[in-house]
Design a protein that fits this description.
The chain has eight helices and twelve strands. The chain is of the alpha/beta class.
Length: about 250
């Protein structure tokens, strides 16, 4: 059995006076893809926010261990350097910063944290071009400002490109399929499937079933009212499609 990558025990979290997560238990091993499904307001995005260290969320109880380290004691930057990646539901625009410069800074920051030398210009450009071709991104996008003027599908392709460049150990896709057409969904799915290895894992957070037709998860969890109320396989997706979340 593969080594445990992420272990969440009795996780409680709130924002202000409102408790949102009410005792999450979740274990993910290397190479696994887990889907977390649930209705709006269930706590799905709060879970991703807590894992990536958004400061407005307060953890009141529980523990999270990532690759043997106390994740909750790490800063957001340290979590990213350790190999945690979040794909946003609504990717932000960064005017004035080209995709090339953005990725060079991100790649070299992670290399520095790992005790490696910065990547030389020619080596970085070779990597950049290779990964852009891998996700079928047009070369001229390298000069464009991050997400500025991008369509929904282009933003998603850009995020999969970032995943390919950074090769995260754990990718969290937080409702990244929201509002996407079938072509854009396939962009996301193809990227996740192509980047999957025995060492890398993903959490797909969604309340739709469509993305999970293209990315087949190993395990499905149903999150409702701040707790995981069901865990299983493909049969849970079918049950949700047929009867909704009210059955849980």
């Amino acid at each position: 059995m593969n080594e445990i990558l992420l272990k969440i025990e009795n996780l409680h979290a709130r924002i202000g006076d409102k408790e949102i997560l009410k005792g999450i238990d979740l274990e993910i091993r290397k190479g696994e893809v887990h889907a977390v499904m649930g209705p709006n307001g269930a706590g799905k995005s709060t879970l991703s926010a807590v894992l990536t260290g958004k400061p407005q969320y307060e953890v009141t109880e529980g523990s999270v261990v990532f690759q043997g380290r106390d994740l909750l004691a790490m800063s957001p930057e340290e979590r990213a350097w350790a190999g945690l990646f979040l794909s946003f539901q609504y990717p932000v625009e960064i005017p004035g910063v080209s995709i090339t410069n953005f990725m060079k800074t991100a790649v070299n920051a992670r290399r520095k944290a790992a005790g490696l030398e910065e990547m030389k210009g020619a080596e970085f450009l070779k990597l950049l071009r290779g990964k852009m071709a891998f996700v079928q991104m047009k070369p001229e996008f390298a000069k464009r400002e991050v997400n500025v003027g991008f369509s929904g599908g282009e933003k998603k392709r850009n995020e999969i490109f970032q995943m390919a460049m950074l090769e995260p150990v754990l990718s969290i896709l937080d409702e990244t399929d929201s509002g996407l057409d079938v072509d854009a969904l396939k962009i996301v799915a193809d990227g996740v499937n192509a980047l999957r290895t025995p060492e890398r894992s993903s959490i797909i957070i969604t309340h739709y079933q469509k993305l999970l037709e293209y990315v087949v998860p190993d395990t499905v969890h149903v999150l409702k009212e701040g707790r995981i109320v069901a865990t299983g396989g493909r049969e849970l997706i079918d049950a949700i499609e047929n009867h909704g979340f009210d059955q849980f």
